[in-house]
Each structure stands twice: as C-alpha cells, then as structure tokens.
Design a protein that fits this description.
Blueprint (H helix, E strand, L loop, with lengths): L1 H25 L7 E5 L5 E5 L11 H6 L5 H35 L5 H13 L3
Antiparallel strand pairs: 1-2
Helix pairs in contact: 3-4
Length: 126
C-alpha cells in the first residue's frame, strides 16, 4: 500500500514537471486535445485524441466510418441543418407563446418568476 501510494505521488510529480516544461518551451500543456471530424454521413462532431495501435490512415474500420467530405453530402447536410433550425425556432416560439399566456393569466408575476414557470413547463414531456 505504501509503495503504490509513493509511486502514484512520483507519477503526479513527473506529470507536473512535464506539463510545466512543455508550457515553458512550447506554450501548450502537451496533453492530447481533440478536433472536429466528420462521420460517415458528413456531420461534424468533436472527437478527443487518444493513442491507437494502428494509425488512422491504415485503419480500415476508421476509414469506413470517417469518410472524406464529398459533394453529395452537402445537399443532405443542408436539409439536416435546416430541420434543426426549424426545431429550434419552433421551441423558441412555443416558449414565447407560453410566456405571453402566463403573463396574461398572472399579471402580478415578475419576469424572473415567469421565466422559471416557462422553464418548468417546457421540461414536461408530452
């Protein structure tokens, strides 16, 4: 138990030293970050970097699930993003309608109380 604890302490000290050295020399911590990548349908998502045995350009499974962006994808991505914008707009419009309805029914409420009531009402599943 004592040996494991001291090894963990040594590893944390070494990690801190490496991080400090990298920040001083390069200006970054040196820890792996991430990037926005496209899936097989062309949609972007954030993927954290991690170590792999096979580089991604040689990995067949990765190449199948992360294809390059092609022209045919733009039509469907445009439709997808339009649908998302419409859903977002409909949600905002519904909350505004609810806010007006609550204000008409309970004119004595403050704006903060109305916002809380709207948030609670919008959380309810239908």
């Amino acid at each position: 138990m004592l040996v494991e604890e001291s090894m963990e302490n040594i590893l944390t000290v070494v990690d801190e030293r490496n991080e400090t050295y990298n920040v001083l020399e390069k200006g970054v911590t040196g820890k792996p970050g991430g990037a926005y990548v496209r899936n097989a349908l062309g949609m972007m998502y954030y993927r954290k970097f991690k170590e792999h045995l096979i580089p991604k350009h040689l990995n067949e499974k990765y190449n199948l699930t992360h294809s390059k962006y092609e022209k045919w994808m733009s039509k469907y991505l445009t439709l997808y993003y339009e649908k998302k914008r419409k859903q977002s707009f409909a949600k905002k419009k519904a909350s505004e309608r609810l806010r007006r309805r609550i204000k008409a029914k309970y004119p004595h409420l403050t704006t903060k109380e109305i916002n809380t009531a709207v948030r609670e009402e919008m959380k309810k599943p239908y």
